[in-house]
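Backbone-to-sequence.
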């Protein structure tokens, strides 16, 4: 699978990801930085853990809806529920990836500085900590980030360092996670 880790700050979000792709536990690929598990698509940073097909579609086929930079909080949540996820679901269905309202991946989206974890049933969640991880190494990465950020101020520089360390730890413990690590950052507001 993979490890994708994110930290949401006051006016930014940082998402890091590993580069390993395993196929049927018999083949291992190292993905290039510009064609990995997370990509920028318009004002969004979108990543997927699970089937590589999901990120292929989200990177190369999906045309996400335009989002106002003035949307945040409950209004952004409503937009994600009623517009973004509906468009993502339609795109998955049109490309034979979704069936019966579900798909086989976890998706992480950053938009307007807010991180959304989207499940295989198209539901989404936030965490009050602003710390997220998906994929087979997510438990290791999440634990490492929580421990590293305890009693520390969340700055972008700290977040990037913590994400890099967390995915490195996941790569040591999860055979489906591998180096190198890439990080994308989204700035929002002033």
């Amino acid at each position: 699978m993979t490890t994708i880790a994110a930290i949401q700050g006051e006016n930014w979000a940082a998402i890091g990801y590993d580069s390993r792709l395993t196929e049927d536990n018999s083949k291992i690929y190292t993905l290039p930085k510009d064609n990995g598990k997370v990509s920028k698509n318009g004002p969004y940073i979108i990543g997927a853990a699970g089937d590589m097909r999901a990120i292929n579609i989200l990177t190369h086929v999906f045309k996400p809806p335009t989002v106002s930079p003035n949307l945040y909080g409950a209004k952004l949540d409503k937009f994600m529920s009623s517009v973004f996820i509906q468009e993502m679901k339609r795109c998955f269905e049109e490309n034979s990836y979704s069936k019966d309202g579900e798909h086989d991946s976890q998706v992480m989206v950053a938009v307007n500085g807010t991180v959304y974890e989207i499940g295989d049933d198209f539901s989404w969640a936030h965490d009050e900590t602003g710390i997220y991880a998906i994929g087979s190494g997510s438990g290791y990465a999440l634990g490492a980030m929580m421990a590293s950020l305890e009693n520390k101020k969340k700055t972008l520089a700290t977040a990037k360092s913590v994400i890099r360390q967390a995915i490195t730890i996941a790569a040591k413990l999860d055979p489906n996670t591998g180096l190198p690590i890439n990080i994308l950052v989204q700035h929002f507001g002033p």
